[in-house]
Amino acid sequence: MAKKNDGFIMQAGILAMAGIICRIIGILYRSPLAAVIGDEGNGYYGSAYNIYAIILLISSYSIPSAISKVIAGKLALKEYKNAQRIFHCAFIYVIIVGGIASLFTFFAAGILVEENAVIVLRVFAPTIFFSGLLGVLRGYFQAHKTMVQTSFSQILEQILNAIISILAAYLLKQAVIDKDLTTQAIYGAMGSALGTGAGVLIALAFMWLVYGLNREYISKRMKRDRSRNVLSYPEIFKIIFSLVTPFILSTFIYNFSTSLDETIYRKILKLVKDVDVTQIAVWYGVYSGKAVVISNIPIAIASAMSAAMIPSISGKFATGDMKGTRAKVHTAILTTMLIAIPAAVGIGVLAKPVVSFLFPGQTSLDLAADLLRVLSVTVIFYSLSTLTNAVLQGIGRVNIPVINASAALIIQTIVLVPCLWFTNLNLYSLAIATIVYSLTMCILNGTAVKKYLNYKQDVVKIFILPLGASIVMGAAAYGVYNGLYTLIKSNMISLILAIIVGAAVYGILVLKMGVLNRNDMLAMPKGSKLVRILEKLHLV
Predict the structure, then answer these.
(1) Cα separation, 440 vs 327, whole angstroms
(2) How many CA within 13 A on the CB side of residue 168?
(3) pLDDT at 306
């Protein structure tokens, strides 16, 4: 495990690139998978996945962030023995908690989801246990500020997930081809769940191999450790529980909104509006399996940035460098917004061609595109709120995201229930509730970061100028797409060229407006190379 520079933007760039690749793979395989299992199968898969995700959040999902935070603090103080002891205790923690969570998921599936999704959730159950082990290993390497191992394992996980999901869904569906369509949809959803487990297993095997290759280096470093304050195992478990619990609560509430929205949506449509269960599943499959999947792609940037920020900020805090912490926060938010804002505008103006490209066929095309347009703004809100969550956790204010997420959850529920009950907005009610939740989190988290870090955002540079450039970019991309499509009638070629033109317009405007200066670009991954290229083009 070679020593790394304290350049979290570079590490975030690596993790973000892996996140983008994973999202692209995810999008590419979702199209043939959707063709196999259909919108109804997507609905059952989405229902089971939401519960699986919540239990995973409670049991082990927050482990990488929490473990990377506490280990990073010890590494910054060169307490290598304590760092290793924390790593070992984290494994014991996830074996116990992950095992209980997996058994609970399997045996309580009949209570947690509707009848048609029960068997799908049971297929997910073992993955919870293995995900906990994988999370500890990823958190360990993230604490060392090296994201390469985590990034590669994520790509490996997603590739196998894609292959097994499609293959297993097809084979299981063929096994019941003589049954009714609902049974075929259920078995197809089971196959997709198998793919998720297979991906986690291969990633776990890879991370364990990487750790094994570094054991000699780890042992030598521990022998050089002369620190006298060696923590006892009871002390370490106390630290883990005190740190992991707030992480779990904030992450749980932050993500529970999706499952709560779905539950409210299904109950009101079934019990109040008397909509058929199959139709509800089909509609929800369009929302969760198409519109939400696409809108989540740019948010991978923020997730990667936040994962990279936690150990870096924790290390700065351990050494008392407040100025350095604020500088990192500023760079992270600027970099994320420079990507999230144009991404939101882009998928908003090109929603229909994007959906048509990723999910060929006219089935539910217009509905998915309209939902994507509404959800596009959440790309900005979720990206920013995810980052500010990480900032607050990194500076030790781990309870603040819990409080903020709880408040946002209450507010969005107050909005969602009357929208579903008294209007015919249906799926659009879910999209509106998502906007309300993510916006509320942005406001509350932003206020807390300002208070505890004395951090002042450059609103013009971070938000207004990128938004202005994005609007011009969106108009250019929209015009190019429609003009080309009128001439050549090819959605794919028109869309790709529109994206290229839009990106070029946005990049030039951002530079000419002075949003990015030389120092900002040098702080980014491959920044020096980027500056040299732009200088040759006379853009800086």
Answers:
(1) 25
(2) 21
(3) 59
CA separation for the pair 329, 321 (Å, rounded): 13
Name the strand (E) or helix (H) holding 360.
none
Task: Please name the residues in contact with 522: beta carbons below 8 A apart, sequence gap of 6 or more.
Answer: 528, 531
Q: What residue spans define the domains of the chain? A: 465-540
Best CA proximity match to 61, nearest among 101, 106, 26: 101
Written as one string, the DSSP assignment of 12-73 is HHHHHHHHHHHHHHHHHHHHHHHHHHHHHHHHHHHHHHHHHHHHHIIIIITHHHHHHHHHHH
Cα angle: 74, vertex 78, 81; to 5 degrees: 70
Residue pair 187/177 in contact by the 8 Å Cβ criterion = no
pLDDT for the residue 171: 93
Per-residue pLDDT reduced to its tens digit, 196-238: 999 999 999 999 998 888 888 878 878 777 777 778 888 888 8
Q: How many CB atoms lie within 10 A of CB 257?
A: 21
pLDDT under 50 in the chain at which residues?
1-6
How far apart CA 153 and CA 156 sit, in angstroms, is 5
The pLDDT assigned to 6 comes to: 43
- Confidence at residue 10, expressed as pLDDT on a 0 to 100 scale: 61
Amino acid at 36: V
CA 8 – CA 307 distance, rounded (Å): 10
- What's the rounded Cα separation, in Å, for the pair 95 and 87? 13
User: Nearest CA to 328 among 3, 6, 5?
Assistant: 6
Question: Are 84 and 222 contacting, i.e. CB atoms less than 8 angstroms apart?
Answer: yes
Length of the chain: 540
Distances (CA, A) of 247 to 66, 387, 527: 7, 14, 33
pLDDT at 2: 41
347-373 pLDDT, tens digit each: 999 999 999 988 876 678 899 999 999
Rounded Cα–Cα distance for residues 504 and 221 (Å): 48
Measured CA angle at 385 (ends 383, 386), to 5 deg: 65
Residue 348: per-residue pLDDT: 95
Torsion (CA) 511, 516, 522, 525 in degrees, nearest 10? -90
Residue with tokens 């063929």: 174
d(C-alpha 456, C-alpha 279), whole Å = 48
Tokens 């030790």 sit on residue? 396
Residues 6+ apart with CB under 8 A from 92: none
Cα 148 to its chain centre, rounded Å, is 18
